[in-house]
Design brief:
By secondary structure, the protein is an alpha/beta fold. The protein is extended. The longest helix has 19 residues. A three-stranded parallel beta sheet has the order 1-2-3, with helices on one face.
């Protein structure tokens, strides 16, 4: 804190409570523990009215949030989320862009409210993703 005379006073705002190291019996137990904590964190961040959107980047962060919202169940729908994504235009043959585009379309398959639009990475290309292309 700094007062009017520019005197500074330091005080601890918060302190993390030390916890003993987590010791579980198996790697699977660690995965289950993470899913429980991460799933609870995602659920706590979602509004109760079901009006939330998730921007899918094709990476592990947005994919993990979508998986947690689905309850980590294979093929389960996250009805509380509207998935939105920007994907590269199909004409761009860069392997990285194609992989990211495939990840996004795969993650959001089955999401009835998914909306996709393309961002031309280089000049040219259709600025909107054909809905038939999104179904693939």
């Amino acid at each position: 804190t700094v007062d009017r005379e520019a005197r500074a006073r330091a005080r601890r705002y918060w302190r993390l409570a030390p916890r003993p190291p987590l010791r579980l019996a198996s790697e699977r137990d660690y995965v289950d523990a993470f899913r429980q904590v991460f799933g609870a964190a995602v659920a706590a961040a979602l509004p109760d009215d079901g009006r939330a959107a998730l921007m899918l980047s094709g990476g592990i962060d947005s994919g993990a949030v979508l998986a947690a919202a689905r309850g980590f169940a294979q093929g389960a729908a996250a009805s509380a989320l509207q998935c939105i994504s920007a994907v590269c235009a199909p004409c761009n043959a860069d392997p990285g862009h194609l992989a990211e585009r495939g990840n996004i379309l795969s993650m959001s398959s089955g999401e009835r409210d998914a909306r996709h639009f393309t961002v031309p990475v280089e000049s040219g290309g259709d600025p909107w993703l054909d809905p038939a292309d999104a179904a693939q």
